[in-house]
Structures are given as structure tokens and as C-alpha cells.
């Protein structure tokens, strides 16, 4: 309409690396906007004191246009424009205004914040890697222990045949004691959320095995030479030589598909077989506990007798099959979760 463009009010502030300009225009559209003199075309030009980079970022709000420019060289400018006299449309932006020392303080604060955050992340990372490292060592020790048990039993079976079934306890029990005491760590891992698993299934597994190992086998000498010891130990170690290396790889976020498949599949026949072997051991030990009165609970003298530990064993037999049911369901869930996520990842 032939009208001359008007000059908007511009306020400015600086930091060591940036220049901020705030143009007082409401509802600005490119160069058009509603300024102090209403809807018009506005323009302004400034000759900066020192060079700035060509990339400019701007953001329009309902009341202003905010422009940010990057100084070519980091530093503090004594004024914005080349000419000493300040243009009339230019004023300091008091909302953002800082003098040089305040700006330096701001930088220092920002850096301190950044460093704090960095060291926090570092500490967290350090903690995670320490936990992973400890888990890895734990799994490695268990893997070595159970591999030794499995290989030793297999070699002895080949060399001595059926005879090897009768002295399993004497040759293997010490390493088995060590591995199974150490397995209590798994309950702690589950309880403190170190690994993604439930406490109950882990507790059932660890308490169940240690009951057989220390009470049924360990405390009854007559059980030491029973072939059932061979079957129980063989079944326990057969799963662990796959489970622990699977966890070891997991500590490095890697996997070997065959190993994953074995870890989540061979428990299907081994778990019920293991529970059956353990049940056989419990049943075999019942007459021995009755005879020796070991762990029997004494009753008051007036009643005269004592309650045989075999009653506890009868209850335990029921608990075993309850435990089998809970853990079978848990392992089935873990298997489905593992293979479902993998399939989804592959898609
Ligand atoms: C309350 C007390 C009551 C007592 C009652 C007694 C009842 C007695 C019942 C006794 C039955 C026991 C019979 C048993 O002794 C017989 C046998 O063992 S026979 C041999 C076959 N056995 C098996 O196959 C079982 C082996 N054991 C297990 O699988 C575990 O112990 C079990 C707790 C059962 C299941 O393991 P979990 O829940 O941990 O499943 P996942 O392997 O899928 O792991 C889940 C995620 O956690 C990560 N994880 C777990 N452990 C570790 C580790 N040590 N290091 C690193 N990472 C670990 C794993 O990678 C999974 O993570 P993600 O999902 O991210 O991959």
C-alpha cells in the first residue's frame, strides 16, 4: 500500500558465545507484525561490533520474536553495534541482561552442573559394571564347579561303570556342598532385584536342593552309598552346565542361540526327573530316620515317645510336588517370555 516499513523496538543481551535480540512485535509473520504503531511491515538493520556466524535461530511468541546469533569468536563485547552511538530503537533486554562477571558465573554454574551429572552417571555406570562383574564371576565359579561335577561323574561312569554309582557322594559331595551353599546368592540377587526373577521360585530351588543335600544325604551315612545320589547330582549338574554359561553371556548382553534354547528347554525333562530322583531319596531315607531317631522331636516324659523326623519327610514329599508345580509353571513362563521377546525382536 506504499507505506514505508517501520522500525520495531529491539532489546538485546549477550553471553560469551551468543547474542540475543528480542523484537517487540505481536503476531509477527515473517516481516509483517503488529508493533507499537499497529499492523505494519517492520524492518531493522544492525551493524554488529564483531562478526557473527551466518546461522540464525528465531522463535516467535505471541508478543515477541526472539533471535539468537552465535558470535564468530567467543568473548565479551563492550557494545552491540559498530557505531558508538546506540540506535534509538535499541535497548538492553533487562530480563536477560548479565554483565561479564555474572555471565562467567553462569558458565561456571552450568559447568559444575554438567560435571556433577557426569560424575553421577559415572558412579551409576561404575555400580552397574561392578554388579555385572560380580555376577559374571559368580556364574563362572558355578559353571566351573558344576562342569567339574558333571565331567568327573561322566568319566567315572565310563571307567568304572555301575560301580561308580555307589561312591558318588565320597567323590563329589565337597564340590557340591560348595556350589549349593554359594547358590544362596541367587536368593539375594532375586530379593534385591539384581536379576529379573521372583524370590519364591529361587527360594524353592535353593532350599529344596539344600534340604536333600545336607539333610537327606549329608546327615545320614547310610545314604552315602546309594545310587540315587548319582542320579540326583547328575540331573542337577546337567542343567547347570548350560544355565550358568547362558547367564555369563547375558552379563555382556550377548547370547548363543543354541545355548539359550538348551537353557530354556532341557529343564522340561530334567526338572520332573530331578524331583522324582529327590523323592526316591526321601522315601529311601524314611526307614533310616525311623530307626536311628535322628532329628526326632522329643515329647514330654509323661507321653514317653518322640515324633520321628519321617513325619516331616512325608509332609516334605507333598511340598516337593507343590514346589515342582510352582517352578515348572515359572520356568514355562520364563521360556515363553524369552522366546516371545526374541521373536518380536527378529520381526
Ligand atoms: C519357601 C521354601 C519352601 C521350600 C519347599 C521345598 C519344596 C521343594 C521343591 C523342590 C523342587 C526342586 C527340584 C530341583 O532341585 C530339581 C532340579 O534342579 S533337577 C535339574 C533341572 N533343574 C532346573 O532346570 C532348574 C534350574 N534352576 C533354575 O532355572 C532357577 O533356579 C529358577 C529360579 C528355577 C529359574 O530361574 P530364573 O527365574 O532366574 O529364570 P531365568 O533364567 O529366565 O532368569 C531371569 C532373568 O534373570 C537373569 N539372571 C538370573 N540369574 C542370573 C545370574 N546368576 N546372572 C546373570 N543373570 C541372571 C536372566 O538372564 C534373565 O534375564 P533376562 O530376562 O533379561 O534374560
TrEMBL record:
It is an enzyme of class 4 (lyase). Its EC number is 4.2.1.134. The chain crosses the membrane at residues 126-151, 171-192, 199-220, 226-246, 266-289, 309-328. Pfam families: PTPLA (PF04387). It is a multi-pass membrane protein. Residues 5-81 form the CS domain. It catalyses: (3R)-hydroxyhexadecanoyl-CoA = (2E)-hexadecenoyl-CoA + H2O; a very-long-chain (3R)-3-hydroxyacyl-CoA = a very-long-chain (2E)-enoyl-CoA + H2O. CDD domains: p23_hB-ind1_like. InterPro entries: CS_dom (IPR007052), HSP20-like_chaperone (IPR008978), Tyr_Pase-like_PTPLA (IPR007482). Its main location: endoplasmic reticulum. One of its GO terms (biological process) is sphingolipid biosynthetic process. This is Very-long-chain (3R)-3-hydroxyacyl-CoA dehydratase. The keyword Cell inner membrane does not apply. Pathway: Lipid metabolism; fatty acid biosynthesis. It is found in: Endoplasmic reticulum membrane. SUPFAM superfamilies: HSP20-like chaperones (SSF49764).
Amino acid at each position: 500500500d506504499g507505506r514505508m516499513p517501520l522500525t520495531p523496538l529491539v532489546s538485546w543481551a549477550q553471553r560469551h558465545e551468543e547474542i540475543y535480540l528480542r523484537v517487540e512485535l505481536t503476531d509477527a509473520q515473517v516481516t509483517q507484525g503488529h508493533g507499537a504503531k499497529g499492523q505494519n511491515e517492520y524492518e531493522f538493520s544492525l551493524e554488529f561490533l564483531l562478526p557473527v556466524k551466518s546461522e540464525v535461530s528465531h522463535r516467535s511468541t505471541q508478543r515477541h520474536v526472539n533471535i539468537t546469533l552465535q558470535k564468530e569468536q567467543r568473548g565479551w563485547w563492550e557494545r552491540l553495534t559498530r557505531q558508538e552511538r546506540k540506535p534509538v530503537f535499541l535497548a538492553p533486554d533487562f530480563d536477560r541482561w548479565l554483565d561479564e562477571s555474572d555471565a562467567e558465573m553462569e558458565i561456571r554454574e552450568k559447568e559444575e552442573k554438567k560435571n556433577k551429572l557426569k560424575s553421577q552417571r559415572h558412579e551409576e555406570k561404575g555400580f552397574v559394571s561392578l554388579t555385572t562383574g560380580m555376577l559374571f564371576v559368580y556364574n563362572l565359579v558355578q559353571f566351573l564347579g558344576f562342569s567339574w561335577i558333571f565331567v568327573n561323574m561322566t568319566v567315572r561312569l565310563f571307567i568304572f561303570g555301575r560301580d561308580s554309582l555307589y561312591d558318588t557322594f565320597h567323590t563329589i559331595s565337597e564340590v557340591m556342598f560348595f556350589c549349593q551353599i554359594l547358590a544362596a546368592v541367587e536368593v539375594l540377587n532375586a530379593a534385591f532385584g539384581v536379576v529379573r526373577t521372583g524370590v519364591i521360585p529361587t527360594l524353592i530351588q535353593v532350599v529344596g536342593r539344600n534340604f536333600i543335600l545336607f539333610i537327606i544325604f549329608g546327615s545320614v551315612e547310610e545314604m552315602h552309598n546309594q545310587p540315587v545320589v548319582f542320579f540326583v547330582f547328575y540331573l542337577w549338574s546337567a542343567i547347570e552346565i548350560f544355565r550358568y554359561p547362558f547367564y555369563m553371556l547375558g552379563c555382556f548382553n550377548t547370547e548363543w542361540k543354541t545355548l539359550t534354547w538348551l537353557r530354556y528347554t532341557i529343564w522340561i525333562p530334567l526338572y520332573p526327573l530331578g524331583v522324582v530322583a529327590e523323592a526316591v531319596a526321601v522315601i529311601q531315607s524314611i526307614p533310616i530316620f525311623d530307626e536311628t531317631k535322628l532329628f526326632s522331636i522329643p515329647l514330654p516324659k509323661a507321653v514317653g515317645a518322640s515324633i520321628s523326623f519321617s513325619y516331616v519327610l512325608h509332609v516334605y514329599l507333598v511340598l516337593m510336588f507343590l514346589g515342582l508345580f510352582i517352578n515348572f509353571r515359572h520356568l514355562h513362563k520364563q521360556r515363553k517370555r524369552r522366546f516371545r521377546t526374541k521373536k518380536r525382536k527378529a520381526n
